[in-house]
Structure prediction request, 235 residues.
Amino acid sequence: MTLERAGRTVRITDVAALAGVSIGTASKALNGTGQLRESTRARVKDAAEKLGFVGDARARALSSGRTYTVGMITTDSFGRFSIPVLLGAEDALSAGQMAVLLCDTRDDHVREAHYLRSLAARGVDGIIVTGRSADARPPIDVPIPVVYAFTPSTDPDDVSVTLDDAAGSAAVAAHVLSTGRRRVAIVTGPERHRSAVRRVYGATEVLGASLVAEPLYGEWSERWGRQAVDVLARG
Prediction:
């Protein structure tokens, strides 16, 4: 409810007066609550826009019992995977005027525990857990709704939104064959990573006899990619 206009602060009373409704009705219309006609909501929102009214987030939180914030816990210090997840979360949550608090644990369990306590103390409405690996991680135990993105939980009862590595690599292999290639090799990351193993499985199922060598597992790096090509060329 703060914006200086003509030397004074625009308040919800001004919005209610311009819309011709009570203060309570104006509040419900702007907060999306109550049983109101759509024409009334539209009239109140139009009045607020004309006056340049900006709602008080603290008052909104007190009246609803929510903070309209979501915490994001990540181990991806470089942001290669967590930033896209963050952008997607912000796109979805901004429609509800919600904010995302990003917390980088740097693979430190102590830091993660600290952030979880801090987010719980802030009363966030939910927590998104992500990281730099598609390998499953142990679940976190907090009395707050939790969703795992990219990095799934080891608990099948948790909500995890992750990649279908096998289907993705199968689609890539099918595309390679569709271009007329009949001698194909697979170069991937460490065999200890579930995502690397699943990708090999999906591609192998499609390639069949076109696979000319055993899959080459290595590190996730361009250097390993060049080394693998040298190995294949010599073989």
Summary: Residues 1-6 have pLDDT under 50 and may be disordered.
